[in-house]
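Please supply some protein, with fold tokens.
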Amino acid sequence: MRDATPSFRNQAAAPAARGCGPCESPAALARFRRPSPCRAPFGGWAAAGLAALLLLASGTPQAAGSAPDQITLKSGRTYNVYGDMLVPAEFGPGIQGALTGTRWPQATLSYEFDSSVDAAKRNDFRAWLNDWQLGAGTRFTESASAADRVLVQIANDIGCGSSAVGRVGGVQDLVISSDSNCWRRRTVLHELGHALGAIHEHQRTDRSAFVNIIDHGIVANCGQATWDANYAVLQTDVTTAYDYASIMHYPAQSHYTCNNSDVYADVQVLQAQPPGAPAGSQNACGSVAACQATIGAGSVSARDRHGMAMRYGYRIEVVVAGNGGGSILVNGNREGCGTHCYLVVPDSLFTVYALPDADSIASFSGPCVTGTCQFTPTDNGVVGVRFTKKSSIAAVVSILTRARDEKIFRSGFESGP
């Protein structure tokens, strides 16, 4: 059997001896039964790309490969394995199955821990989740009873990390290797990107304008399926600009051991970071050389978050307060996310209408201060609505008027003509 576990070496990385550590040893390679990235100890992300992500669930690969490997995980579910993307076997063969996952309702991903994840790793996982919650409406909730949920587990027979892509229905798996080089912030965030619906940045439809990927023996020694799983161009709907800084982008070199041969792919950057939303994200790398050094070494980038907001929306909460009565109506949201909580995609005009009762008046705070609240969100945010009884306002005015009159009286009496 071939062994096709890639190790990753960025141009700015340390010497190969520091590469992916155990992933480069024959003993470790024997444990990894299929192509999946390991993450280098020097911090380079090894394997995948989301930013533009918003490869919304539709697509077909440009080239068909040989039959994929299969694996059955802790949920009891069997998957076809495409790199670090897991496609439920019931979806049928073909990497296009990775594009059939849907959004998580209310932008909330439910997860539970398998007993293989110890307390320290659970705390790491909970802390790292916040990177995907900043600048996008995504949220995570720990639940062992949700009908659709992610089962987080540790395994020693699968590669550094793997996940189903998007919500596939029922219990789905997210696996991190037991190898000490794999339980890392970037590994977990990358696999969570998959679970939320992201695919690899360098596999998006327009990638050929941004990177040139050269095969140095992968197809000949590892097979077409390995190449397709990691480098095939997918026919996708692209909604964000290409992002070399994405946490989901492959690095400059990806090494594999197949048939006792060291083979690899070169990822060559063709241009600087292109213009695109959000503002300032073009500055991630301003030259070909800078972008070449950037790929594979990022964390969750600004475009990653913007792409996730395009998929799920920004989370806008309307906080209602005051002693008066009334109701609110909204327009322009994709879906709700709880009581007075709304998901609004970038560039959408979102409107909040405050409808006070006859005995009350309404006022806004936050992005709107007067009149109807109408704005285009650029981040998660809060709109404040206060309903105040008119009688309370009249009472306050009366008190202020008496205080003013008393001040005038005192001032006039004490100072005299």
